[in-house]
Amino acid sequence: MLGIKTKLKKLFRNKNQSLVNKDKIIDLMITFKADEFGHECNTEKADLGYGWIHYGLLRQQKPKRVLCVGSRHGYIPAVFAQACKDNGFGTVDFVDAGFDLDDKGGWTGVGYWRTKKGRNCFNNFNLGNYITLFLTTTKKFSQRYPNQVYDYIYIDGDHSLKGVTSDFKLFWPKLNRNGYLVFHDICVKEDKPEGVYGVWKLWKKLEKEFKGIKINYLGSGLGIIQK
Ligand SMILES: C[S@@+](CC[C@H](N)C(=O)[O-])C[C@H]1O[C@@H](n2cnc3c(N)ncnc32)[C@H](O)[C@@H]1O
Question: Which one of 74, 130, 149, 157 has the largest count of C-beta atoms within 10 Å of its C-beta?
């Protein structure tokens, strides 16, 4: 039987041996309710899942402007904002129409961004300087900011073929050369109560055209193309 001191020392040593701050990761994942299935992540293990891919790309690419479309409680936009904070610069435009479960075309949105708690959540996690929420549709956003360009774009909003194709057409021209465009849910093919998923169909075309990278072990899938 290990004594309590030995146990604590072992824990402390293990903690210190990690490259990353596990407490901080767990804090972020709990605060922004990381979807473990959707992002192949594990909160208890401080495993960011797809968040590692985004965080790694953003830390290496060091973008000035990031666009994030769609999130239920802010997990992926928070990872983006944290990466910008850790880079020392860069900002995230986070666009979500704030759809609720009852809204048609809400794609499992829970209306969080319409609430005070949702609107303040990034500030409360000290990420407020690195992210701005735009409570609107992608179409209206792109009409309102026609000249805005990005280095990294993530699309996880309207998952129908029509919706995701429209987002691709809206934002591909706004991606800087060498920038990344990343799609969530490229592997979901079954019809669900929230709608008929069509990201995989668009991805099939783009993957060939742009020699895309597909990341998928369990289900949702992440697709990355570079301009
Ligand atoms: C709930 S997310 C999908 C879940 C996400 N994978 C996650 O980890 O949280 C889809 C979001 O996209 C938003 N959305 C759907 N269509 C949109 C549109 N046309 N423009 C902006 N946001 C949209 C919804 O409000 C919803 O919050």
Answer: 74
